[in-house]
Amino acid sequence: MKKETISTEQLLSLLLSRDENGFNYLYDNYSGALYGVIFRIVRYEVEANEVMQDVFVKIWNSITSYDAKKATLYTWMLNIARNSAIDRLKSKSFQNDLKNQSIPDFVNDNAALSTEQVHEFHEVQKGVNSLRDDYKILINKAYFGGLTQEEISEELGIPLGTVKTRTRAALSELKNILKDFKFIILFFLIK
């Protein structure tokens, strides 16, 4: 049985009209990619599942705030997932749970992604890998590591202003590298 494919505009219309079919399609087609981002940050299956649930509730409840002029729907959802995972990572309850857990409950990093999502991920990863080393480190720590600019500054021992300037330059360069690719570069919402 072939999976039904709908356009982003159709999906957005379904979500804005609060159609449950839109939510189901969203979950079926994007949960793997969003879970992958969340898991790379929190690294625990139980926590990642909780954040995942929160992310879909946030998407559902705040879909009216989505602005297509600022980012693609996919990018907007990835930012919600990333920020939610970082918030969970920094929460007191998560820190307390870490103290009580002896063995990490890791899952396979290769969450079920669609062919298109795998292609998009590989294109972004190729772009990141083509950046000069100091840019690559910043993007990897911010996106894959879930670190804030302040944390990156402390970890690398470089001034916060330098981290901010290099991150902007790295994202600009990455945007140029991916300009022929069909989606807009992820906008990192660093706290």
UniProtKB/TrEMBL annotation:
<keyword id="KW-0804">Transcription</keyword>
<dbReference type="InterPro" id="IPR007627">
    <property type="entry name" value="RNA_pol_sigma70_r2"/>
</dbReference>
<dbReference type="InterPro" id="IPR013249">
    <property type="entry name" value="RNA_pol_sigma70_r4_t2"/>
</dbReference>
<dbReference type="Pfam" id="PF04542">
    <property type="entry name" value="Sigma70_r2"/>
</dbReference>
<feature type="domain" description="RNA polymerase sigma-70 region 2">
    <location>
        <begin position="26"/>
        <end position="93"/>
    </location>
</feature>
<dbReference type="GO" id="GO:0003677">
    <property type="term" value="F:DNA binding"/>
</dbReference>
<protein>
    <submittedName>
        <fullName>RNA polymerase sigma-70 factor, ECF subfamily</fullName>
    </submittedName>
</protein>
<keyword id="KW-0731">Sigma factor</keyword>
<feature type="domain" description="RNA polymerase sigma factor 70 region 4 type 2">
    <location>
        <begin position="123"/>
        <end position="174"/>
    </location>
</feature>
<dbReference type="GO" id="GO:0006352">
    <property type="term" value="P:DNA-templated transcription initiation"/>
</dbReference>
<dbReference type="InterPro" id="IPR013325">
    <property type="entry name" value="RNA_pol_sigma_r2"/>
</dbReference>
<dbReference type="GO" id="GO:0016987">
    <property type="term" value="F:sigma factor activity"/>
</dbReference>
<keyword id="KW-0805">Transcription regulation</keyword>
<dbReference type="InterPro" id="IPR014284">
    <property type="entry name" value="RNA_pol_sigma-70_dom"/>
</dbReference>
<dbReference type="InterPro" id="IPR036388">
    <property type="entry name" value="WH-like_DNA-bd_sf"/>
</dbReference>
<comment type="similarity">
    <text>Belongs to the sigma-70 factor family. ECF subfamily.</text>
</comment>
<dbReference type="InterPro" id="IPR013324">
    <property type="entry name" value="RNA_pol_sigma_r3/r4-like"/>
</dbReference>
<dbReference type="Pfam" id="PF08281">
    <property type="entry name" value="Sigma70_r4_2"/>
</dbReference>
<dbReference type="InterPro" id="IPR039425">
    <property type="entry name" value="RNA_pol_sigma-70-like"/>
</dbReference>
